[in-house]
Amino acid sequence: MTSIAVVNQKGGVGKTTVVLGLASAAAHRGIETLVVDIDPQGNATTGLGVFEPTRSVDSVLADESPGGIESVMETTAWPHDSGRRPLVAASSPALAALEPQLATDPLGAQDRLSLAMSGCSVPLVLVDCPPSLGLLTINALFAVDSVMVVTEPGAWAVDGVGRMLQTVSRIQSRRFDGGPVVKGIAINRLGRTRDGRYWHEQLDAAYPGKCLPPVHLRAAVSEASAQSRPIHSLGRRAGASEAAGEFDVLLDVLLGHAATDGSSRPESPQQGET
After folding, report:
1. What is the CA radius of gyration of the chain?
2. Does residue 270 belong to any structural domain of this protein?
3. Among 45, 86, 229, 240, which is disulfide-ready with 220 (CB 3.0 to 4.6 Å)?
4. 147 vs 39, 56, 107, 135, CA distance in Å?
5. Measured between alpha carbons, how far is residue 61 from residues 133, 140, 222, 260 in Å?
6. Which structural domain range is residue 164 located in?
7. 269 inside domain
8. What number of CA atoms fall less than 13 Å from residue 242's CA on the CB side?
9. What percent of the chain has pLDDT over 90?
């Protein structure tokens, strides 16, 4: 099993959109994938077309169930022609109430998700984390074997990524296996502007070798999420095939099938862009 936590302590960077894009890429090539949605907002769950889940991940976190994640998995409602439809361990509003309850457990507050995911047979697990450094995110970082930080090009990005990487480093020092491995920094919603290019270059300079192939700003990506459809199914929608291709490349890098060597470089601004 390959398990990847998708994180950022700041909301609004499109973290869930990247999770859904990766799930779409995996579905398109027939990889069985589980999306574990531990964000109480539940956007990954609804983005996968599940609006009234029959069960949710909060129950296995509350019960300390070894291997319990498989008891709450259900097939998503993406179209049948989208490939191998992902599974989801759905979010629910109860997660928000569960987090402060976890803080009362002095022994196992941080490893409930690790316990629940033990023995999971799904080849690829993507964990969509809340936009915070609370116990739900900490649980994810103790449970997975790798982590990807999602950010946007902007003035706050370098410092925000740095704080997130510091948190990951603290987790690594506390895990006996030294995990999770940092797969890199995914720069989302990269605009083809001088400003976008500047901040991308700042991230590259601050974290050399860690920036992954970017996901450019395209309306088709937001449209796919809003319609609860995989980006690979939008077909002729302007920008859809290009966006799908970027998520294919990003998935290849995360799974070790490709290197970043230069593919993370920002595109030059077109004439008239600022």
Report:
1. 18
2. no
3. 240
4. 16, 23, 24, 16
5. 17, 11, 31, 36
6. 2-254
7. no
8. 10
9. 63
